Amino acid sequence: MLQRIQTLYLLLASICMLVATVTPLASFLYNGETVVFEAMGIYRNGGLESSTWALFAIGAIGSLLPFVTLFLYKTRILQIRFSVFNIFLMIGFYLYFGFLIYRINPEAGLQFQTIGIGSIMPVIAIILTYLAIRRIGADEMMVRSFHRLRK
């Protein structure tokens, strides 16, 4: 059953979270120098200024979970539960990202410059995961209706 449309949704959600984990999330200006915020850390002049390994861990789990969920096609309810957990994980990614920016901004005096592609990808992954949940639910209802007809 790997040829279903929700498989494509979950695979794309996994790729989106992987992109969010490995690409820059935002860039700032600090005393004329560019500071790049990535999931692995905050970099100034190419050197690591501050490590944000927890954000990377949330992003990595958020990219692996939809991929693992693909192979649970025989247990659709478990697929839905994992997908809902993944949506909460992606929301947590944004909340922690916002917390990190809030924590470093007042003390460093950073000026926001650009938003990276990595900041947008979790929103796309949330939408794709939601679409996958809807399709998995529709499959579950169809299987239950067939089961009801067999009795």
Percent range for β-strand residues: 15-25%
Low-confidence stretches: none
Helix content: 55-70%
The H/E string reads: HEEEEHHEH
Radius of gyration: 19 Å
Please state how the strands of the largest beta sheet are arranged side by side: 4-3-2-1-5
Secondary structure tally, helices: 4
What is the average of the pLDDT values? 89
Write down the overall geometry.
Answer: elongated
| Structural category | alpha+beta
Structure description:
- With 151 residues, this protein is an alpha+beta fold.
- It has one domain (19-146).
- Helices cover 68% and strands 16% of the residues.
- The protein has four helices and five strands; from the N terminus they run H-E-E-E-E-H-H-E-H.
- It has helices at residues 5-22, 53-70, 76-108, 117-150, and strands spanning 26-30, 33-37, 41-44, 47-51, 111-115.
- It has a five-stranded antiparallel beta sheet.
- The longest helix has 34 residues, at 117-150.
- The chain is elongated, with a radius of gyration of 19 Å.
- The two termini are 24 Å apart.
- The relative contact order is 0.21.
- The model has no long low-confidence stretch (mean pLDDT 89).
- This is Putative secreted protein.
- It comes from Petrimonas mucosa.
- Pfam families: DUF4293 (PF14126).
- The chain crosses the membrane at residues 7-30, 50-73, 85-104, 110-133.
- Keywords: Membrane, Transmembrane, Transmembrane helix.
